[in-house]
Design goal:
The complex is a heterodimer.
Chain A lengths: L7 E3 L3 H4 L1 H16 L7 E4 L1 H11 L1 H10 L8 H17 L4 H14 L5 E6 L16 E5 L2 H13 L4 H5 L1 H4 L9 E6 L5 E6 L10 E8 L3 H4 L6 E6 L5 E5 L14 H18 L3 E6 L6 E7 L11 H6 L4 H28 L7 H29 L1 H14 L17 H16 L3 H15 L6 H5 L8 H15 L3 E2 L2 E2 L4 H13 L5 H23 L4 H45 L14 H9 L23 E7 L1 E4 L2 E9 L13 E4 L15 E4 L7 H9 L3 E3 L4 H4 L5 E5 L4 E4 L10
Parallel strand pairs in A: 16-17, 17-18, 18-19
Antiparallel strand pairs in A: 1-2, 2-5, 3-4, 3-5, 6-7, 6-10, 7-8, 8-9, 10-11, 12-13, 14-21, 15-19, 16-20, 20-21
Helix pairs in contact in A: 4-5, 5-7, 5-15, 13-14, 13-22, 14-22, 14-23, 15-22, 16-19, 16-20, 17-20, 22-23
Chain B lengths: L20 H11 L2 E8 L2 E11 L5 E7 L3 H8 L2 E7 L13 E10 L4 H13 L4 H5 L3 E15 L3 E5 L6
Antiparallel strand pairs in B: 1-2, 1-4, 2-3, 3-6, 4-5, 5-6, 6-7
The chains are: A alpha+beta, B alpha+beta.
């Protein structure tokens, strides 16, 4: 657009401007003003301003590159979140052209004044009769001052590309080359109560019912779920009360927030809006009768998502600060200690001494414990993981760093269980380093153990005690195994595979020791600097809030790693009991064929243990699928993923797809896997680089690689299929590219 | 049993269309009449825009050049060539959607005779206006035996396809 053209339309004139220019929300509010409804005064920043802004800032190509990195359907929600954060940071760092900023400032002065405003999204096409996209884009309430308003405008523009909007990109027809966003700036109306009202009951739209909800204070508290509302269900035609349910709120005497006059007035507002638009509305309102102000009106949508549509669930994984605070306290104070002691309790049981009936009871107890803890994992641990993302966005919004992931430097992994295990392994490798006789003996023992009965490993290692340094090594090895290795990797219980641990220790002993101290000191200094940057950017008035966001981010970061290991320890106790049951049945000749280990084999084992006459009916294990070497005319040369940890390194591929693969991993290999799990992060110090199928800047592998300065590219959809063991690859963690094959090769030969 | 992958279980589709690379290359080649022929000689690379045609199996391409040209001289000295074909003109501001394919191989002049008829027909079926040009005595017809293709999309996603299968 030419800078001389106005990008401001008064809200009172928005109805005539057209939804393409001011967006659907603003156009409807304009119609309501014309029809005589009370609506907070304000103005629209048109879609022309958005177009001018992104053209001047070069953001269109940036968005296209971000979203074109790989097919959007192949991006996990976490990758969409990452893309949205990068786009948001780019928007926040871009300057609003002077002509537009000047018009916004003038409109604020002329039409609103000094008070706080709400800066709301108003995208063309949102909230149609068929579809409602409430909450996908951002609205920021209580913004004061020109500068803060301009910042809020940028943030709302960026929310056209929010993670939520990207999840619903098809329904929104999102397209970097065509999508636009208008913005609504309105004065904030302060009233003693606010709420939402539906002129049909969204749960049963054919019934003659109206639903009204109210909370004390602003409507935002209801919309974001912070405050439980009073809820009325009324007969639409008569206005008669069907039901009133008081909200559960502290320091509330239980008196209904709305009186009969307020309810009658809201019914009248709803009815008149339905007449105006010819659709039953969902209205956000504030203030009592007769001064009720309409904040927003959109069609009620009743279509339910498909049963397999998980997108709504992802959107619940973004609890707000208040909820995250409570969740962090509960997870840290109650759940993690309880999970830890559950694992330790089950591990302490001597199953070998149990009679068959006792073993059957132990199986049931362990299966139930694991089920319960998995539920807690999904319901409470996973939502807490948002604490890290919240910190990331909070930091990026405040500091606007070059690198949107600069905030990762605020996190500290040293206290994690996995870090403590990795330190213990480094110390154990140090005992081997330079002790040639011990290395040889450990190497021999490792080879012997690979074929030995796993329960006899202590006996196999015992001769090491005769060697110089042997007793110390063995004692430390025992302690390490018991403390950290009683976990699962895939279907393998790592405690049953000491040969894998010995292999990794031998590899670690071969490479130069990593001197962690200077790096740790630098990290401490860098962490303090980043903290200061955050607090300076936020300002003293919001320092407490920033400190809480930081605390939750750190708790979330540590626990989301520990919880996997602790849950895996509980799972390992079930696996131990299953193995014991199978051993007994095998010894009794009741296990003719080796069964396939499945989640649901416990009832059959319990029956077999408690009823000697019972037929053991278990699915039989099939020979492990041989790995198919892909011989194709089509081979990858460059694979593109996310640049998850900077650096450039080449090495031979070693794919880790099962516990046994740990025993093949050599120092200097490139670790290629579906996703690095906390159970295997001890391999990362040996790796030249890391490549993962699972994408995300904040997943375990990405963060640990970044901490160790190892290049990592993740989010390569077919990494494990397309890369072959032994392939030489080059991992560019700066750009997120994996190049397959040696750098120089004959162009004419395949 | 597997420790639940955080927010996982939602196995993402492997990649975009799942279409075979040879079909993707075929479609790109079919949509473009011209490509950049890359030659070399005298320590210097050289590029020329040529009208080309390709066999359905993508094993060979054909183009014609006047003999009194730099590219003819360079081809006489060194048979190693590359042919770049892309669709950028259809997508001027959509870098991530642009596709390009580079075919590498060796170029051989096609001698007069039945073989010439076969290869020239392949070229003139696609470019009928070149009929007189191709049959001129001052023109030479070249066949490229393609060793492999490099297909690039999304700015830097590169896959390789070998027409005759892996060695």
């Amino acid at each position: 657009m030419g800078s001389h053209r106005s990008c401001i339309v008064l809200l009172a004139e928005a109805a005539g401007a057209g939804g393409g220019l001011v967006g659907g929300k603003a156009a409807r509010l304009g119609s309501l003003i014309q029809a005589g409804f009370r609506v907070p005064r304000g103005f629209c920043i048109t879609t022309r301003a958005y177009e001018h802004f992104i053209a001047e800032a070069g953001l269109r190509a940036r968005i296209a590159m971000e979203l074109g990195r790989k097919p959007l359907d192949a991006m996990r929600w976490e990758e969409l979140w990452d893309a949205a954060l990068r786009i948001r940071t780019a928007f926040l760092r871009a300057g609003i052209p002077d002509a537009i900023a000047g018009q916004i400032r003038r409109a604020l002065a002329d039409h609103i004044g000094d008070g706080a405003v709400a800066v709301r999204s108003s995208a063309p096409g949102e909230d149609s009769r068929q579809l409602s996209f409430a909450g996908l884009h951002e609205s920021i309430v209580g913004v004061k001052g020109d500068r803060a308003v301009l910042d809020a405008v940028r943030a709302v523009w960026a929310s056209l590309w929010s993670d939520a909007a990207l999840l619903y990109r098809r329904e929104l027809s999102l397209d970097p080359h065509r999508s636009r966003m208008a913005i609504l700036v309105q004065a904030v109306e302060l009233a003693e109560c606010s709420g939402v009202a539906f002129n049909r009951d969204p749960r049963s739209p054919d019934a003659d019912r109206v639903v009204i909800e109210a909370v004390p204070g602003p409507c935002a508290l209801l919309v974001d779920g912070s405050v439980d509302p009073d809820r009325w269900t009324l007969e639409r035609t008569s206005g008669a009360l069907i039901e009133w349910r008081p909200g559960r709120r502290e320091s509330d005497d239980g008196t209904p927030l709305l009186g009969a006059q307020d309810l009658a007035h809201l019914l009248d507002v709803l009815s008149r809006i339905e007449t105006l638009f010819a659709w039953p509305p969902d209205v956000e309102w504030t203030g009592r009768s007769p001064d009720t102000v309409v904040l927003q009106a959109r069609p009620i949508t009743t279509s339910r998502p498909a049963a397999d549509d998980e997108r709504g669930w992802y959107l619940t994984l973004r609890p707000n600060l208040r909820r995250l605070s409570a969740l962090a306290d509960r997870v840290k104070g109650e759940l993690i200690p309880a999970l830890e002691s559950e694992g330790a309790r089950l591990a302490s049981h001597d199953l070998a001494a149990y009679a068959d009936a006792e073993l059957a009871a132990a199986l049931l107890e362990r299966a139930e414990s694991l089920r319960r803890w998995k539920d807690i994992y999904w319901d409470e641990f996973i939502p807490l993981a948002h604490g890290v993302r919240q910190l990331g966005r909070y930091y990026a919004d405040a500091v606007r760093p070059d690198d949107p992931y600069e905030f990762v430097g605020l996190l500290k992994s040293a206290d994690m269980l996995a870090s403590r295990r990795n330190q213990a392994m480094a110390a154990l490798a140090e005992r081997l380093r330079g002790n040639a006789p011990l290395i040889q003996a450990v190497s021999d023992a490792r080879a012997a153990l690979a074929d030995a009965d796993p329960t006899m490993w202590r006996e196999t290692l015992e001769p090491l005690r005769e060697l110089p340094g042997g007793p110390g090594f063995l004692d430390a090895f025992d302690a390490l195994a018991a403390r950290f290795m009683d976990v699962m990797y895939g279907t393998e219980r790592l405690l049953d595979r000491p040969d894998l641990l010995l292999h990794t220790l031998l590899e670690l002993a071969e490479v130069a020791p990593r001197d962690a101290r200077p790096a740790a000191l630098n990290q401490d200094e860098a962490r303090s600097e980043l903290e200061e940057r955050l607090f300076d950017a936020i300002g003293p008035a919001r320092r407490d809030e920033a400190a809480e966001v930081l605390r939750i981010g750190r708790v979330s970061w540590r626990l989301r790693d520990d919880d996997n290991l602790l849950l895996s320890r509980v799972e390992s106790q079930l696996t131990r009991a299953v193995a014991m049951a199978l051993d007994r049945l095998r010894a009794a000749g009741r296990l003719r064929q080796e069964p396939r280990r499945t989640d649901d084999m416990v009832p059959a084992l319990v029956k077999a243990l408690t009823d000697p006459g019972a037929v053991l009916d278990l699915p039989v294990a099939s020979p492990e699928d041989a790995r198919v070497e892909i011989l194709s005319q089509d081979t990858p040369r460059q694979l593109v993923g996310q640049p998850a940890s900077p650096g450039l390194a080449s090495g031979r591929v070693c794919r880790i797809t099962a516990g046994a693969d740990i025993g093949r991993f050599r120092a200097g290999n490139v670790l290629v896997c579906d996703a690095i799990q906390p159970m295997m992060t001890h391999l990362v110090p040996l790796a030249a680089a890391v490549v993962e199928r699972r994408g995300g800047m904040l997943i375990h592998g990405a963060i640990i690689a970044r901490e160790m300065g190892i290049p990592c590219v993740n989010g390569i959809a077919r990494a494990v299929d397309q890369l072959r063991d032994g392939d030489v690859i080059t991992v560019d963690g700066h750009l997120g590219i994996v190049t397959v094959g040696p750098p120089e090769f004959d162009l004419e030969l395949a | 049993m597997r420790v639940p992958d955080e927010i996982a279980g939602e196995a993402a589709p492997e990649d975009g269309s799942g279409e075979n690379l040879d079909r993707i290359i075929r479609r790109l080649i079919d949509g473009q009449l011209y490509g950049v022929l890359c030659t070399q000689g005298q320590g210097q690379p050289y590029g020329s825009l040529v009208a080309y045609a390709m066999t359905p199996d993508l094993e060979s391409a054909v183009f014609a050049t006047q003999k009194a040209t730099r590219k003819y001289r360079l081809l006489s000295e060194c048979a190693h060539v590359a042919l770049l074909v892309d669709n950028r003109s259809a997508l001027p501001d959509q870098l991530m959607d642009v596709e390009a394919v580079t075919a590498t191989g060796r170029a051989f002049e096609v001698a007069a005779g039945p073989e010439f008829e076969q290869w020239s027909r392949l070229l003139t079926d696609r470019h009928p206006y070149l009929d007189t040009f191709v049959r001129s005595v001052s023109c030479a017809l070249f066949r490229i035996d393609i060793a492999r293709f490099f297909h690039v999309t999304r700015f830097q996603e590169v896959r390789q396809w070998v027409p005759t299968g892996p060695a």
